[in-house]
Amino acid sequence: MPFSYRPVLLFLFTAALAGAFWRTPAPGAPGFAQPPATTPSTLPPLFVNEMLWRDAGLAAAAPNLTELPDGRIAAAWLAGPEDAMSIHFSVRDRGGWRSPVLIATAESTAGGTFAQIGRLGNPVLHAEGSWLHLWYASSTLGSSINHSVSTDGGKSWSKPARLQTSPFANFGGAVRTAPVPLADGGLGLAISHDFIGQHGEWLHLSPTGQILDKARLAATTSTLQPAVAALDEQRAMAVLRDAGPAPGSVRVATTDNGGQRWQAGEALAVANPNSSVALLRLKSGWLLLAGNPASGRQALLLWLSADQGKTWQEVRTVETAPDGGADYGNPSLLLGRDGRIHLAYDWRRQGIKHVVFSEAWLDGGQP
Asked: pLDDT tens, 42-65?
């Protein structure tokens, strides 16, 4: 039987591809952008809720928030038929939420990435100077992360480009929570990896979105959808969705060297029914956590920590309902430059709810 070179050539091609993936530019000195100085919030008790978007007959899920340079709040979320959702975008100004526009579909993603696309995954927005970043997952045989940019406040977007997060056919990546500014001008983006196991990963991105480095978010069980808050220039805390056996708890990973390495921390005394959580550092320096109780997504709760995540106190119930159709999952938190706290979440899989509140309300004050 004649010798076949095909297996050898395939091995050499795969090795070269993996080597090219990891020959990335050297990252700058590790570290997080200095968090804002701790100051007491002067806002009075405030709590306002409104429907961000709802369209009869269509499903909606997975909102994500950012603040534009002019102070307006922008949101992206999935909406459409359950098996064919697209990414919608809207901006909130003094007149409320504007009519949403469609910014990514399976067809537009296929055209930009030259790949066959089955469905789209959760979007993440981040405004930085004149750039508005959009990351979102798309699936074929596995999921991959796409990156697109707008320089006109979301009116038009560049063609999506795939992030090379894995040498194994680039499968297994997804996003859910906002990135963290880094000291070198880049961004730290926490992602899920669900190809051959489930765990969180940390991507060190350049200011233009290229991957400079990555690290695994260590955990003692399967985890997904990490959310990260920087505590100072070198320390940060990640909270992760518990994808292990029930009953679950919010999982933790920490770093003390600017995100180069992450260690598994002790799970929080906060239940997690395999659902997404959101994390935010407030003006006071306290940490705010949003998620669901042990019983499931029929309630959305808020917890506060005054000791950088060591202990947590349940402080508010944002919404709750006893019926089986209630689903208040996928929270997204944002701290506005004016000190107002914004929260968006799934509303019964039928729409997106937006809530604005203050630290004084969290402390028990009544608006």
From this structure: 899 999 999 999 998 899 999 999
Helices (H), the chain: 6-22, 106-113, 359-362
Would residue 232 count as lying in a domain? yes
Query: Is residue 33 in a domain?
Result: no
62: region left, alpha or beta (phi > 0 left; psi from -120 to 50 alpha): left
For residues 301 and 289, give the distance between their C-alpha atoms in angstroms, rounded to a whole number: 8
**What's the chain's average pLDDT?**
90
Of 82, 140, 77, nearest to 113 (Cα)? 140
Across the range 321-350, mean pLDDT stands at: 95
| pLDDT at residue 4, rounded to an integer | 41
| CB proximity list for 81: less than 8 A, separation 6 or greater | 58, 59
Distance of alpha carbon 345 from alpha carbon 340, whole angstroms: 17
Answer whether 60's CB lies under 8 Å from 361's CB. no
- pLDDT tens per residue across span 225-257: 999 999 999 999 999 999 999 899 999 999 999
Beta-bridged to residue 291, according to DSSP, are 301
pLDDT in the model for residue 291: 98
Query: What pTM does this model have?
Result: 0.91
Q: Per the structure, how many domains does the chain have?
A: 1
The domain spanning residue 218 has which CATH number? 2.120.10.10
Burial class (CB in 10 A: 0-12, 13-18, 19+), 156: exposed
Question: Does 7 score more than 70 pLDDT?
Answer: no
Structural domain including 185 reads 45-362
Q: What token pair was written down for 39? A: 């100051």
**Pick from 231, 230, 232, 229: nearest CA to 240:** 229
Helix (H, G, I), strand (E, B) or coil at 303: strand
Domain-embedded: residue 151: yes
